[in-house]
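Listing S7. Sequence submitted for prediction.
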Amino acid sequence: MAVSDTTIDRVAAPRPTPESLLAKQEPPGQARLRLYLGAAPGVGKTYQMLLEAHLLHRQGVDIVIGYIEPHGRTETEALVQGLEQIPLRRTEYRGVTLTEMDVDGVIVRKPAVVVVDELAHSNVPGSKNRKRYDDVLDILDAGISVITAVNVQHVESLNDAIARITGVRVRETIPDYFLRRADEVINIDVSVDTLRTRLRQGKIYSVEKIEQALANFFRKGNLSALRELTLRQVAEDQAAKAHDYRQREGLEQATIPEKVMVCMSSRASAKKLLRTGSRIAGRLASDWFAVYVETPAEEPARINPEDRVTLMENTRFAEELGAQVVKLKGKRVADALIEFARREGITHVVFGQSARSRWDILVHGSVINRFLSEVRDATVQVVPMT
């Protein structure tokens, strides 16, 4: 079937390779799970699933639609045509007839692959399972491979981060173990401007919701942060799967890109650290972080005015050198730095060391010593400060 010029930009993932086609050569019972992950509604997850379904169908794979939600998008509805659909189950709830995926009907039909949209959906009370992801697990247990999709805001472990970014507390989530169960997690991505344009064109929400969405969830800052979270989630999944595979096969673990962290302060001497970090990152061809920990004593209302000016200068200098500036908040500098280093997989750390008496270190402790005792898989460089 032909794809019109107006829908070409919705194809966010490359044509699947023969190696990636689900259930083509899998032995009986080896059901596979492919999950498309998006930063927000409208990136093209459903569209891509249907494109893949048509490709598999043309190659002779027995594939059906278990549940699809076109959201009124004409080009998506067109792709539903030509694919077998399992009739939905109708349920009466509070005087209203609602439809749900017929899990038992899918299992009885027993195709090789089933497409299941809206993974985070909560089923009607009285259904076999409370959540659709539980339906998918039942289907997988029956030996049927699944292609499904979800947005990053529905990942349970990211719920707090999503609330901070968007101001919206997402109620429908999927557990992280479901992502770990997936054989493939694939990012479906479009630029922020493209996504906002689709919204304005009425391709995501109805007309009366567009302006509200643009001013809230679909703000540029929100979408940029959600894209970053999605990329990180997919990268972490890929790294974990690659690690498990190499360990299972007895192979040496692959070298990962280096990550450099410079522990920046509100002192003028911090520029020396930043230059050192820039040189190290340049040698390693790596991205790097300039990290500043805001303690209660250095909150905006309490920080010394001179220190505030110096911190702003250091931040601008770090950005000019190409660093990603990160401000953390914490009562203890060491705790915040250790947590960040572990979370980001930091491999090189640059500290500044001013002259301190041994008595001062004994009484107040040393951030560097604490870091060295807790983080043992990072190279630490201490730069003397004058």
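Caption to Listing S7: primary sequence and predicted structure tokens for the chain studied. The longest strand covers residues 145-151. The chain has 14 helices and 13 strands.
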